[in-house]
Specification:
This protein is of the alpha/beta class. It folds into 2 domains: 199 residues, Medium-chain alcohol dehydrogenases, catalytic domain (Quinone Oxidoreductase, Chain A, domain 1, Alpha-Beta Complex); 142 residues, NAD(P)-binding Rossmann-like Domain (Rossmann fold). The strands form 3 sheets. Strands 3, 4, 5, 8, 9, 16 and 17 form a 7-stranded mixed beta sheet that branches. Strands 12-11-10-13-14-15 form a 6-stranded parallel beta sheet, with helices on both faces. α4 packs across α5. It is globular and about 65 Å long. The structure holds nicotinamide-adenine-dinucleotide and zinc ion (ZN) (2 copies). The site of one zinc ion (ZN) has 6 residues, from loops. Its cofactor is Zn(2+).
């Protein structure tokens, strides 16, 4: 037992007090974990675009004050009542969506949309009692995605925590807790390209390049990267992307450009932008008869997907995924093992690193479209 078990811990957390305003490092109180919860010491966290959307709160509804953050790695500090599968000292990745192990989704091989713990962007409290575990002078500070990793300590439902190989370097594998696994799984588990096929990737951030990595592992022969920011193209070459298209360079819609490049369309496409026009293009650029498009980006809250139904009748398939269809607890440890066996390179996704005190720099980099993942060091 750690000396802090059962006690309130005072620690530093980056609090988003208002939409779009820089985070403020505050001293917060973190209550002990309750039934089926664990308290984690976060060692490293990184910034995913989903954090930025809910901080900006322009395209999404959000609640404040809130502790954001969901891509991270840490160590279990203490466990609440009923937790048997985790113990203090375990190395873990918290995940924004969970796996209760009991519901119809958890029992299905096809789904990771757990009834109890699936992603819920509106909820700012723990499901056990509808309260927060964070406070400042008794005032509650809301949670985000059940993870709130921009804090030295956080409380998470046990079903949202994957226990990983203790030898895995936490400053690297933290990026596997959201973006890279999401992109990788979107390709390997959902789009499922065959050897020698063509794959279009919309959006060449960390999620899109995770998807490109999946295409490379699946043996795709053409990987076409599409981004409005041409400065992404140089970096993307390291990920096996073979051709590049910037939609801004053409008068005609990008789906027509891709159809011409590929003799009628790509075999698979994966959308990783969050932009509704890119989602529609990603669907319409797949080959009729067999093409499959997968949506990954988080859309604007008012977005509507519009396409002619003939596109479906002509035997194109549209799918979407959260977390690349990986079940967090069952599947994430094996993604970490892919990295440990050097099948998956994680280092090339990490372009920046800042100490916790400079967390706002990570937001600035993402808003400028610079780099892929910025690691935030908690100590
Ligand atoms: P990022 O900002 O690093 O990368 C997004 C890229 O898309 C940028 O390079 C940008 O220039 C490009 N882009 C934007 N609009 C475009 C357009 N219309 N056409 C072509 N390119 C365009 O973000 P990220 O962290 O890689 O995340 C990508 C998306 O995936 C976000 O929407 C994020 O919220 C979402 N996401 C979804 C899941 C999931 O489980 N479904 C998980 C993690 C992230
Ligand atoms: Zn994310
Ligand atoms: Zn479940």
């Amino acid at each position: 037992m750690s000396s802090t078990a059962g006690q309130v811990i005072k620690c530093k957390a980056a609090v988003a007090w208002e939409a779009g305003k820089p985070l403020v490092i505050e001293e917060v109180e973190v209550a002990p974990p309750q039934k089926m919860e664990v308290r984690l010491k976060i060692r490293f966290t990184s910034l995913c675009h989903t954090d930025v959307y809910f901080w900006e709160a322009k395209a999404q509804n959000s609640v404040f004050p809130r502790i954001l953050g969901h891509e991270a790695a840490g160590i279990v500090e203490s466990v609440g009542e009923g937790v048997t599968e985790l113990a203090p000292g375990d190395h873990v990745l918290p995940v924004f969506t969970g796996e209760c192990g009991e519901c119809a989704h958890c029992k299905s091989e096809e789904s990771n949309m757990c009834d109890l713990l699936r992603i819920n962007t509106d909820r700012g409290v723990m499901i056990n009692d509808g309260k927060t575990r964070f406070s400042i002078n008794g005032k509650p500070i809301y949670h985000f995605l059940g993870t709130s990793t921009f804090s030295e300590y956080t409380v998470v439902h046990v079903g949202c925590v994957a226990k990983i190989n203790p030898l895995a370097p936490l400053d690297k594998v933290c990026v596997l807790s959201c973006g890279i696994s999401t992109g990788l799984g979107a390709t390997l588990n959902v789009a499922k390209p065959t050897k020698g096929s063509s794959v279009a990737i919309f959006g060449l951030g960390a999620v899109g390049l995770g998807a490109a990595e999946g295409a490379r592992l699946a043996g795709a022969s053409r990987i076409i990267g599409i981004d409005l920011n041409s400065s992404r193209f140089e970096e993307a070459k390291k990920f096996g992307v073979t051709e590049f298209v910037n939609p801004k360079d053409y008068e005609k819609p990008v789906q027509e450009v891709i159809a011409e490049m590929t003799g009628g369309g790509v075999d698979r496409s994966v959308e990783c932008t969050g932009n509704i026009n890119a989602m529609i293009s990603a669907f319409e650029c797949v080959h009729d008869g067999w093409g499959v498009a997968v949506l990954v980006g988080v859309p604007h809250k008012d977005a509507v997907f519009k396409t002619h139904p003939m596109n479906f009748l002509n035997e194109r398939t549209l799918k979407g995924t959260f977390f690349g269809n990986y079940k967090p607890r069952s599947d994430l440890p094996s993604v970490v093992e892919m990295y440990m066996k050097k099948e998956l390179e994680v280092e090339k996704f990490i372009t920046h690193e800042v100490p916790f005190a400079e967390i706002n720099k990570a937001f600035e980099l993402m808003l400028k479209g610079e780099g892929l993942r910025c690691i935030i060091r908690m100590e």
